[in-house]
Amino acid sequence: MLEPAYQADVVIVGAGVAGLSAAHRLNSAGVTTAVLEAAPYVGGRMATEKVDGFRLDRVGQLLSTAYPELRLAAGLDALVLRPFAPGVLLHSDGRRHRVAAQVPGRGARGALHAVRALASAPRAPQRPGPAAPARPGTAPWGTAVDQARLGAALGRIATVPVERLLTRPESPASQALAARGLPARTVDGFLRPLLASLLCDPELTTSSRCADLALRAFASGRLCVPEGGAEVLPELLARALPTGTVHTGVRVTSVATTRVATAEHGEFRCRAVLVATDARTAATLLPGLRVPDFHPVTVVHHTTDEPPGTGASLLLDADRGGPVAHTAVVSQVDPSRAPAGRALVSTTVLGAPPAEVDIAVRRHLSRLYGTSTARWETLAVHHTPEAVPAMRPPHDLRRSVRLLAGLYVCGDHRDTSTVQGALHSAHRAAAALLADLGAAGSMHAAEPPRSVPRAA
Ligand SMILES: Cc1cc2nc3c(=O)[nH]c(=O)nc-3n(C[C@H](O)[C@H](O)[C@H](O)COP(=O)(O)OP(=O)(O)OC[C@H]3O[C@@H](n4cnc5c(N)ncnc54)[C@H](O)[C@@H]3O)c2cc1C
Hints:
Helices cover 28% and strands 25% of the residues. By secondary structure, it is α+β, with helices and mostly antiparallel strands. A hairpin with a 2-residue loop joins strand 7 and strand 8 (95-99). It is globular and about 60 Å long. Residues 102-137 and 441-456 have low confidence and may be disordered. Flavin-adenine dinucleotide binds at residues 13-19, 36-39, 44-46, 58-60, 62-63, 200, 251-252, 276-278, 281, 297, 299, 384, 387-388, 411-412, 417-419, 422.
């Protein structure tokens, strides 16, 4: 049992990456925090299951080295990002084509620098090695001219300042793509499958501004995974906090500006409260917050002792010929995720999964990798119905994090539905808190506790 009258300047509800990162920023500024987490572990959605020497993420595996908050968030100095091979591999009509963004030394201008057909026969197992050059016009996203236009478009978006992207007119990404002047085959053969994976949104109902941000990160950085699994990121943040800051197994039932009630651990008193839970719980604790729709995501992990020959590439299906949105031999990207001699293939299915998802995924993987998956072993099927909040237009990427003096909210639902968005919202919430605490000194010394506002 924790001390019921525990004193901290700020109580933070939720130890996902947003709550932990905010705690870090506040502690670094000399503000004491208590982080209350309902689960027995930290990390929230960034969880990694350990099975027989494999490290199996519940989340899809797409971070970008261009996410600014991965560099800015205090406590992440020791984070190692393992990049995929540049760009992506696109499967279309039995062939695999590489689309690589960003050319070292040539900057974003050469955003599309390689077009390669890696497989000519759908069933032939491939080994890593030099890729055969594409035949002109064989790429699923168009002719050489189309490819040059796509390269120029990606190059331009990589250099547009974020604030300028956010002033562009907003519509559903699927509509905006059609109006961008790129050929339909470029949009359907490359941009749609790529954006669906980056946004966890198969129908591309997401705001075009969020889609532009995702494309910008793709064109200016490398897709990557955290070495050791998704959980490493929150664990690093938690480890860097003063001992005794994080309390797991403590479920918060209500909040006000100067106190937090818990299910079994009494009341915590404080000078301010930051709610850093998922969107649905935040709306329960802070009535008046909107509950968004969510995109469901399923991640399926297989192992084999004969890894398909796609190396460390992320593989997408331009033909959308099955349930798989993207897949990779993740152990080739981050060898710490599988025991020696075994390959880990991690695959993401977007939207409602089909019945008998593992069978449907295996069939699709067999076509994508050009090899039989019959002897592959299924390690885990993780389905998360409320994986990421939908970001339909109009989507405010800078949703308010300060509800009133003493009451704040952060998490991916206040920004973009990504790790970058969660960390950025924490950054904004910590700044708002510090401004209020600095301005008001003991902000609530003379004030009675206030109840939660109805509108936000
Ligand atoms: C399947 C899947 C795939 C994804 N793919 C990607 C991707 O490719 N790229 C990307 O950038 N992002 C991806 N994401 C999204 C990313 O994981 C999230 O945006 C990010 O982890 C959100 O962090 P958070 O701290 O805002 O929320 P959360 O991680 O949800 O943390 C909230 C915490 O609050 C705790 N909590 C809830 N209620 C209470 C309570 N009453 N009392 C105390 N504690 C409470 C929860 O237990 C949890 O630990 C994916 C997510 C999923 C699930």
